[in-house]
Structures are given as C-alpha cells and as structure tokens.
Amino acid sequence: MVTRRRFLYSAAAGAAMLSRMPQGLAATYDLIVKGGRVIDPSLGIDAVRDVAVAGGRIAAVEENIAADATETIDARGKIVAPGLVDIHSHAARTKEGPPLCLLDGVTAFVDAGSFGADGIDQGAANVKAGPNLGRLLINIARTGVAPGGELHDLSRADVSLARGAIARNRDVVIGVKARLSNNVADVNDLEALRRAQEAAAPFDLPVMIHIGQSYSPMRAILPLLKRGDIVTHMYAPAPNGILDDNGRVLPEVLAARRRGIWFDFGNGVADHFNWDVVERCMKQGFAPDTFSTDWNTMSRTTGVIDFPNVMSKFLMFGMSLDQVIARATVNAARVFQAFSDRGTLNVGAPADIAVLELREGSFEFLDNYQGKRTGRQRLFPVATVVGGKKAPARA
Ligand SMILES: [Zn+2]
What we know:
By secondary structure, the chain is α/β, with parallel strands linked by helices. The protein has helices at residues 9-20, 97-102, 120-128, 159-168, 182-185, 189-200, 218-221, 251-258, 275-283, 307-316, 321-328, 330-335; strands spanning 28-40, 45-54, 57-62, 68-74, 79-82, 84-89, 106-112, 133-139, 173-179, 207-210, 230-232, 262-263, 353-366, 372-386, 389-390.
C-alpha cells in the first residue's frame, strides 16, 4: 500500500516560483517533459501529462503545459515516473558508480555495506562527488564487504569504531548493514547482528540484513530486528530462507512484516534468489516492499543489467506497472528518512524523473542460478532528469 504524501513546503515553493515571474508574462520553465504517460503512485496519477521543472524542482504536472522551456524532452509513447530509488546498491564503491547507475534512471541510491569503518570516508567522498543522491549503510565489519566474507573474525565487528565512523559521516550514513549468510558470517551471524544494532542505536538508524543460507534460522534472526529495519535478499533459497519445508512463508516472517520490518528484493548475482522461491512467495501474496539491484559496475553483464530490468521481472509475475513503479520509487523513499522528498513528482519536490519505455516482445530474465524465465514486457531506461537537469543518455 502506498500512502499519499503531501509536502508542507510545496505551497511555499510554488509561491516562490510565481513571485519570480514578471507580471503578465507566461511562465518559463527550465525543462518540460512533454506528453508522456505519467505514473506516480505517490500521487495516484496514471495519465498523459506534461511535467515542468524550474529551479531544480517539480513546478507543475498538468495536461498540455503551453509555457516556454529552455529544454524539452519528448516523452510521447513513454512512461514518466519519479526518479528510481535503489536501496541496495554498491554504487559508492568507486567514483564511476553513481554516474553509471544514473543512466539507468537511478536518481537516488543506498550503497549497502561496501564500506565499514575503515573505508567509509572514501565512500562518503564517492557519493558526494556523484550527480545523484547517494547515501551509505556502514558495514558492521570494519573492512566492509570482503572477499571470503567479512564476519568470520568477529573482532572486525567493532561497535565503537562503527559509531565513530557514523558520527564523522552523519550527513551520508543512514544505516548499518550486516551480511548474515554462512559464507560471510557462519556461526557469528546473531552476534554480528546484535553489534549492528548496538552501533545504530545511539543514532536511531535502521539496520539492513542480508539473509539466506545463514547458520541461524529466521526465527532466531528476526527477533533481533526492530521496526524500520530491512531484510534484503528476501527470496534467498534454503537453507534458512523465509519459506518452511513445505514452501509456505514462515509465520515469523509474516509477523515481522506486520510489526514494520521491510522486505527488499535485492537481485544480486549469486545465491540471492531463484524463480521457485519468487513464485511461491508471490502466489502467497508475499511481494517485496521494495526492489533493489545489489548493483555494481559489472551489473550490465549479469542478470541485473539495470534497475528497470529488475522491475520487469515482477511485471512477469503479474504486478501492475503502478505496483512495480511504487516499489522502485515511493516505497523506497518511505524506508529511509533521507529520501522522504524523493520518489515523487509532487510539486516542490526535487526534480528527479525517470523516462522509461515499456517494450512488448519476448524477454529472457535470469535468477542467480542461471534459471531463465521469459516475460512479455520489459522496461528500458531512455532518459533521466536529476535535480532538474537532463542526464547524459546511456551509450
Ligand atoms: Zn549487496
């Protein structure tokens, strides 16, 4: 469910824009995205509209805006959505990441644990240099994501180091990440999660856990989560995924969702989902709250490809365009306070816009085990606006 949001500053922003216009002249905008099918679940809009941008913010969403604009994007035949928000990415690992994922329509992202206390300052520098809004989850292991797994040695999960790193980077660190699968944490999974919560607590930040093939079962892990925390790789296959031996979603998992824990898709590359788990969960109505890619600069050549490709996998499972776009925009914006003004085309919001093309045909989608399914629709990124400016087109 998507709640409709209204921004307190919208009216003020609109008034400020009007006051800049000379009396008797038509409005002049910086940019108009013309004639697209605007789908914005935050506003309950699915209609052909023009979207006007001024001063880096959404200025109007109306039929046939006749005013002049410095720049125009012809979106006829295309979908115009709020800029995509990817809450599990590794785009901050390098300076190249943020501008590269922007080409896919991703105007805001969370780098989920690439860096721990040792590297977080570099991660902060990388997101601050990017054209889109990047934020970080600090890995509870001081090394960040490490080959072979970063939590086999529990001394790396140093709470005071993590707290110090958060305190230094309060402007960009918006949560703590703990990867709990056996090949990362083995018997240390529960203690690593306890320490992640300890690090987050003084700052009132959420914790994101990566599940699947963990040493401990979900019934031991979930009680350590609080309202607002996030479970990523929700469709990870057994052992210790969210299904019982008969393929039913565990009652503890349903209860966790009821008490306000978010469940995120997290496409990734290895061991994070297979079609069988997705299908069983979707049939039981256990859909993701948010989609995410687990993106890195190699994702073009893996089953991720780009965020719209990940969204398209759920069109294949029968979700509507509106439902799919909600999970890549407004829902993601609700998970993190830092994104509360994103994921929407509401007047006054930062002008982040994803222009997508919905193509019909035969499209092959991959899970993490080389499993292939064929869908009949695929969303493609065609143009992106970030902070009111048109991003370069994808090569
Ligand atoms: Zn990841």
